[in-house]
Amino acid sequence: MHALPSTFALGRMVPGAAAKALPMHRAFLAPCLASAAKRSLSTSCPRMNIMAGKKPDEKSTLGPGAEGPHIKDLPPKAPVPVNPTEKVIQGDWVLFHPVYTAEELRSVQVLSRDAKTFSDKLAHSFVKLARWAFDFASGYKHKPLPPNASEMSLEELRKGGYLMDETQWLRRILFLESIAAVPGMVAAALRHLRSLRLMRRDHGWIHTLLEEAENERMHLMTFMTLKNPSPLFRAMVLGAQGVFYNAFFLCYLISPSTCHRFVGHLEEEAVLTYTRCIQEIEAGRLPAWTDLPAPAIAKDYWRLGDDAKFLDVVYAVRSDESTHRFVNHSLANLKYETDVNPFALREPDMTTKGSRVCFERDESVKFVDEAHRLMQSKTGRPQ
After folding, report:
1. Average pLDDT, the chain
2. What's phi and psi for 74, nearest 5 deg?
3. Domain enclosing residue 172, as ranges
4. Helices in 8-117 by DSSP H: which ranges?
5. Are 69 and 49 in contact (CB under 8 A)?
6. What is the pLDDT of residue 42?
7. Alpha-carbon 9 to chain mean position
8. Could you tell me if residue 9 is inside a domain?
9. Is the pLDDT of residue 62 over 70?
10. Residue 359 domain-assigned?
11. Where is this region: Disordered (predicted)?
């Protein structure tokens, strides 16, 4: 990256901030803002896939191990009716989100970032507390199997508290996803208000956080096709949302970085939970889900094949959670007042997001610089 007399960060000149703000070229800002404006105006606008350098109507040349085409890079499928009596929604009605190849779905690893600072330890402690509360409220349990598990029937293992059935798993997942969609929306709203208050651009954070919130909400909508929660369960969700929303709101006002670290650790737990669910399905311990077809909404959202199974849906959800894990831990490493969101225009491939916890701050600088060079090469602008 060329040396500049002052660092260009968040769309403004910050004298002497070369070591304090995530640097960007002046030339990079224009295409960034143009792309962000397109995404703000309409989610149906053609979007360049920077990874492949192709537009949505062109075939992708990505090979195995690279992140698959994104939602805007694929031809639309038949619209999915929300209700048979309602008007069918035409076109793509969700925000940008990744679509994965079969190899990418299985590249996710269960990882955990070590708490290094006081704020990291505080965030990790709150996650452990939240995990205990969620487990208690949803009835989730995961006991190690006994030595004679091979001699016990599925029913005996369930009665002994070693395994959960499909209903118990759904209760856990529905409760988890109804809460998981809160942080992204809260953070996006607060950054939106901050942008209005300071009268300057946010440069990428708001979009990524909104995409995360909607992605978590779509998880909930997908699993809702299997179970309609009872009034009591809905009341529990209402109470949990009220407490969690306001607590996260206040905490984000005090320390956004700690909150993103909290979400990163929370997503580590989500990846672990879905990994266990996958293992249970593949081991035949959830027989009702072994050959269950994927819901239509899941096939449309993740562009799954017509013969996709529910197991494929769980794999896709786990991949989403690993993305949130990576993004939030990476955002927690940045200076939220000045640094540019490195994922505003492109994301790392799924192999990276699935096998690493996050980008360190210097890696985010390199990632932005690489995005700059790719943008220049595609637009023909001088570097």
Report:
1. 79
2. -120, 150
3. 102-138+152-377
4. 26-41, 102-105
5. yes
6. 34
7. 25
8. no
9. no
10. yes
11. 52-79
Alpha helix ranges (H) inside the chain: 26-41, 102-105, 118-138, 154-159, 166-180, 182-198, 205-223, 231-254, 256-282, 287-290, 296-302, 310-332, 350-355, 361-379
Q: What angle do CA 162, 123, 216 make, to 5 degrees?
A: 65
Band the pLDDT of 35: cuts 50, 70, 90: very low
Helix axes 231-254, 166-180, angle to 10 degrees: 40
Q: Is residue 313 part of a domain?
A: yes
Inside any domain, residue 228: yes
The Cβ of residue 206 has, within 10 Å, a number of other Cβ atoms equal to: 22
Question: What is the model's pTM?
Answer: 0.76
8 sits in which H/E element: strand 7-9
pLDDT given for residue 135 in this prediction: 82
pLDDT tens digits along 316-357:
999 999 999 999 999 999 999 999 999 988 889 888 999 999
Q: How many domains does the chain have?
A: 1
Are 179 and 244 in contact by the 8 Å Cβ rule? The answer is yes
Where residue 14 falls among pLDDT bands split at 50, 70, 90?
A: very low
Tokens 């701050």 sit on residue: 361
* Calpha distance 43→176 (Å, rounded): 27
What is the Cα–Cα distance from 315 to 311, expressed in whole angstroms? Answer: 6
pLDDT at residue 121 is higher than 50: yes
Asked if 201 and 11 touch (Cβ cutoff 8 Å), the reply is: yes
Question: Is 258 within 8 Å of 122 (Cβ atoms)?
Answer: yes
Whole-angstrom CA distances from 251 to 123, 213, 218, 360 are 11, 18, 25, 23
